[in-house]
Design brief:
The chain is mainly α and about 120 residues long. The chain has four helices and no strands. The protein has helices spanning about 5-15, 20-25, 30-55, 70-115. The longest helix is centred in the last third of the chain and has 46 residues, at about 70-115. The radius of gyration is 21 Å and the shape is elongated.
Length: about 120
């Protein structure tokens, strides 16, 4: 495998590890930042809402009840309240992930063919 081909494989691997990472390597920092921020938003929003619901359902617990039946009962209730948000957020992350991998791969390929050096945003 020639060095440019290895470089494209490395870019795809970076994009696979975290959506948006490959854009930073090819110099498209604005696009990378937008993808990273969107991914973080889609991961953090459902987690925060689920956690807040869990705390709201288990507020009167003492320290010894931390793993008691009250907590176990709150999991399905919190899931029922937020499952659509969680699932749609995961779908969004997968879409960003796949888009990032494909876009970085082809951008790298276009740079190789056109002689660009990744100075686009």
């Amino acid at each position: 495998m020639e060095p440019r081909e290895k470089h494209r494989v490395a870019l795809a691997m970076q994009a696979f590890i975290f959506p948006g990472a490959g854009y930073f390597i090819i110099g498209r920092k604005l696009k990378g930042m937008l993808v990273v921020l969107a991914t973080c938003y889609l991961l953090i929003l459902p987690l925060v809402r689920f956690t807040r619901t869990m705390f709201a359902l288990t507020v009167p617990l003492s320290a010894r009840d931390a793993i008691g039946p009250g907590v176990l009962k709150s999991f399905p209730l919190a899931w029922a309240a937020h499952k659509e948000l969680i699932l749609w957020s995961l779908v969004g992350v997968v879409i960003l992930w796949v888009f990032g991998i494909i876009d970085v791969w082809y951008a790298s390929k276009r740079e190789k063919q056109g002689g660009h050096h990744g100075m686009h945003t």
